[in-house]
Design a protein that fits this description.
Chain lengths: ~250, ~250
């Protein structure tokens, strides 16, 4: 399993991924799922991946090494020459389709799932940051202001806190806290999502540096956040008035 | 879709179900999924159902009208004569298997899902309350102290708050609040779960009456709880210290 999220806010772009991979509970491992596709002053592009590990590694390698030129030449097309994030998303979708036709077909032939999906985020030159979700068929959607976050993988446990906690106009450090809480929920409820987590923060302001950070299993800040959140939820529950129709012993109150 | 939960605590038993049924977003309706199977001074038995509506109605009707005697006689076996909740769970499992072999087979023949599952809770005579989950094959498990709640249907959105908020030793009115918050999370994230909700509270104390209540879509208490919870979550998020490795603008802090 996997859990990845992307947030596109007024102040910038946040992406986060766990690192757990597994083929059954008796066969799990840790792989980086947040990939740096480009990181120069003019072009910062990142992707997080979910699905079959062999498929997602194939897709990432195809993007990094370049797609076939299509004219029979040896030259390959890379995202280094793409003029917009939309063009990059098209190339990533194309890489997914190539992986589907090669590795995917082989997996399907032995009835193994070959599904792969990605979140793609970044910016090129002076263009604003953009965030895309690329589906397993290679089609994609772009994140918009009506729903400022996208998720892939084991999305449900961590969605309620995003639904309530993420707003377009929140500061990036608040958004990172809510993203951590969303991961904490997913990790408590599903063994298939686990630390280390990988984080990328891209402030919208031009010229600002991208922050990347790994949150290890023993990260003090994350542990304190998880503990504090439990205490705060208990306090919040107690602060809500009791149901007016029953007494403390569960008996009906008229 | 559906969402149902059962809580078996020191102070008693709580069961809750939504009422939304749907066959696609263009065809939804409201059906009661919390069923009273017995409600006398010596025997109080309730079930909540998830899955194909025709299947769950068949299961409930089989239980209410009685299972075939098996000896060719006209007499049928009912839960009114069962001597323990385990025996009742066996009969409900048998009803699921009968439904599988009749309605279920017909549905499978046209490639429609015929899955049905139930939570069964109640008590007989002076025995303590018990809670069971009956799976789609008719097999079942009993709720135990290690995990004091069971869920069926659209379980993931509402699980994190139960994981953190439900404890064996909490009072029933606190448990009902947490259960409402779990439903609120599920309803906000999935249109297939919706009010009215049906609630049953069975205090453990002998001789105490069972409380049943419907929470309508315009229920003032539930609306206030949902609104208050949003505010409390925002406060709680702000109360957590900011990530030490980044500043307010998302830049790395050394």
């Amino acid at each position: 399993m996997t859990y990845c999220i992307g947030l596109l806010l007024n102040d910038g772009l946040v992406m986060m991924a766990d690192t757990r991979t597994n083929a059954g509970v008796d066969n799990f491992s840790s792989y980086k799922k947040l990939h740096t596709l480009a990181d120069s002053s003019k072009r910062q592009i990142f992707a997080v991946t979910s699905g079959s590990l062999s498929m997602s590694q194939t897709v990432i390698s195809l993007i990094q090494e370049g797609l076939p030129a299509g004219d029979g030449s040896e030259l390959s097309r890379t995202i280094g020459s793409a003029t917009s994030m939309f063009r990059v998303a098209q190339m990533v979708g194309e890489a997914v389709q190539i992986a589907n036709n090669t590795v995917g077909s082989a997996l399907e032939a032995i009835n193994l799932s070959s599904s792969v999906s990605l979140l793609l985020g970044g910016r090129i030159g002076d263009q604003p940051p953009a965030l895309f979700q690329i589906y397993s068929a290679g089609n994609f959607i772009e994140c918009s202001v009506e729903a400022p976050f996208l998720q892939i993988g084991e999305t449900k446990y961590g969605k309620p806190i995003l639904d309530r906690g993420i707003a377009m106009d929140m500061p990036l450090h608040e958004a990172v806290k809510v993203a951590f809480l969303s991961f904490d929920s997913a990790m408590r409820s599903n063994l298939g999502v686990a630390r280390p987590l990988d984080l990328m923060v891209m402030p919208r302001a031009k010229g600002s540096a991208v922050l990347t950070r790994r949150i290890e299993p023993d990260d003090d800040y994350f542990n304190a956040l998880s503990l504090r959140w439990s205490l705060l939820l208990h306090e919040a529950t107690r602060a809500i008035p009791n149901p007016p129709f029953m007494d403390e012993k569960g008996a009906a109150r008229s």
